[in-house]
Design a protein that fits this description.
Layout lengths: L7 H11 L1 E4 L5 H18 L8 E3 L6 E4 L2 H4 L1 H7 L2 H7 L7 E9 L9 E4 L2 H4 L1 E2 L3 E7 L10 E4 L10 E6 L2 E5 L10 E3 L7 E5 L4 E3 L10 E8 L3 E2 L1 H13 L4
Antiparallel strand pairs: 1-12, 2-3, 3-4, 4-14, 5-13, 6-15, 7-12, 7-14, 8-11, 8-13, 9-10
The structure holds 2-oxoglutaric acid (AKG).
């Protein structure tokens, strides 16, 4: 893993200041290739036998928008998330012992990949304190045109903002209103395969639909600190939203 050669102090400083750290060369070409191969195989051979909450499809009801709970359904991804180099990089960011909360994908397939409304992940995770994050790893090139994730820098300091059900399958809860943000305050994550972002669970982010001929597959690892607990008020709002558009 290239992860050994990363600078953990810069990642921590960027993450704490902006609520998002951009990490070039997080994984090697071979690691990206292995993840892609296993995702392809899993979708082709295993997905049909998994429960409905293992995935969300796009509007065509056929093409995968998201894979969920890969850590439950697949040993390769469970083992990947248990790597010591990954855990030691994450520990200071979650302010404690990292606990894996999810391994998932946002596939954003060519032409039909749907958008993601502005949201804070902790509206889904419902943890207090909000010591929880997502590592978003590019498997495909992410360009201006194919639906990059845009982050509002510093928004993790706003705490939990008012939410509303979005009606979007796979992203059931969004922000009730989007705070104003200048161009300098936004990070548009344009990534090469193997690059990553690490974002705090209160950092506002969103992405546009993919209308290009190029898929934009993201592979995500979600961790919390072992000291976090479920917040009942956040959980009630999430349960109401996800009941309208299951499974996430
Ligand atoms: O990949 C995307 O377009 C959105 C990702 C997202 O919402 C997340 O990383 O929490």
């Amino acid at each position: 893993m290239v992860m050994n050669s990363l600078d953990p102090n810069t990642i921590l400083a960027d993450y704490e200041r902006d609520g998002v750290a951009l990490v070039r060369g997080f994984l090697s070409t071979d690691e990206v290739r292995a993840i892609r191969a296993e995702l392809d195989r899993y979708i082709r051979e295993d997905l049909a036998s998994k429960p409905a909450d293992a995935r969300t499809f796009e509007a065509d009801d056929t093409t995968v928008r998201n894979l969920w709970r890969l850590e439950v359904h697949n040993a390769f991804f469970r083992d990947f998330a248990a790597r010591e180099d990954l855990r030691s990089l994450i520990a200071p960011l979650v302010k404690g012992e990292p606990v894996l909360a999810g391994v998932e994908t946002f596939n954003k397939p060519a032409r039909i990949g749907s958008g993601v409304p502005p949201h804070q992940d902790n509206a889904y995770f419902c943890q207090t304190p909000a010591d929880m994050l997502t590592v978003w790893i590019a498997i495909d090139p992410v360009t201006e045109a194919n639906g990059p994730v845009t982050y509002v820098k510093g928004s993790h300091r706003l705490g939990p903002l008012p939410t509303k059900p979005s009606g979007v399958r796979g992203n059931s809860i969004g922000l009730a209103g989007m705070p104003a943000a200048t161009e300098e305050e936004r990070l548009v994550a344009l990534l090469e395969p193997g690059d990553a972002t690490i974002h705090h669970c209160d950092t506002i982010h969103y992405s546009a639909p993919n209308t290009t001929d190029h898929p934009r597959l993201g592979f995500l690892l979600v961790f919390r600190g072992s000291h976090t607990e479920t917040d009942p008020a956040l959980k009630a709002a999430y349960t109401a939203a996800v009941t309208m558009t299951p499974p996430a």
